[in-house]
């Protein structure tokens, strides 16, 4: 079977869409108050450092995904169970993205549609694109990258043009607030969304121009970080700290306030479409990573056989994980602080250090 390949532009598009995902719609960095935009910028260097570690491991083992070189570095007896731990974390986080999309769609427009129907349609779309392969998925990301960027710029421009922004909601930032912004950036925003790029350790082996992997990824992380910072700054300037922290989806609340000359109104469809696109690509990459790791661990040659089981698990986990949205968010904060860093930071850094030490002292056979 021919190996599927993707190009640097496609990798760039996929990283941008993945990073924006749900992070552009839901509130993040609440601990930093009105300095959330600053927290995102502070988390950028840490996100770039993590990506540099992912790339370094990929370059050392260019034909392996993370589960493969975990076993290579730590040995099969430790590496295999540790790699197996990736699967429930990836599937659970993918189901969380699906749950957030379904709840927003129901609260915004589809209040009479069962959430099971909405989530099922999204999962079917994800399973279809994964069944077609990573090349088709990457080409699709190129198209939707431009659509998402255009919609985002349009929405932010209209909000500013409507005179809704108030810079007093962003400034001044006092000395103590700088420390609060830093504590919010690490580890919260550092892991979500930047650390989640660990999923791309299963995609990088398909890149056809290895020498561009580092520059392409860092450029995508920088752009996505600036876009997130700017968007959340606009939301905070419109809503203020109190409303921003209490609203479920601040981007949706912000756009519903737009009224330019009693002519440009009701732009919430753009927010809904942005969420659908972001969740589709983010959940697809999470599911793809789970499929590839499961196929590697259990020696499944045809990865398409795992697409449906993974999709079904994600769908039903999105319902049983939490009884309502407040509980969902409370569980998410615990998951973000205690479990997700294990996958995104602890294990990759451990692999990086152990590999360097083993290579330095010639411990590889």
Structural class, from secondary structure content? mainly alpha
From the N-terminal CA to the C-terminal CA, the straight-line distance is 30 Å
Radius of gyration from the CA trace?
Answer: 20 Å
Question: What helical percentage do the residues reach?
Answer: over 70%
Low-confidence stretches: none
- Total strands: the figure is 0
As a percent range, the share of strand residues is under 5%
Mean pLDDT: 90
Give a quick account of the main beta sheet: strands, pairing sense, barrel closure.
none
Task: Explain this structure.
- By secondary structure, the chain is mainly alpha-helical.
- It has 14 helices and no strands.
- The model has no long low-confidence stretch (mean pLDDT 90).
Short recap of the structure:
The chain is built from 14 helices and no strands.
Describe how the helices and strands are arranged.
Elements (H helix, E strand, L loop, with lengths): L7 H13 L15 H25 L5 H9 L1 H9 L1 H23 L6 H18 L1 H28 L13 H17 L21 H34 L3 H7 L11 H30 L9 H14 L4 H14 L1 H21 L5
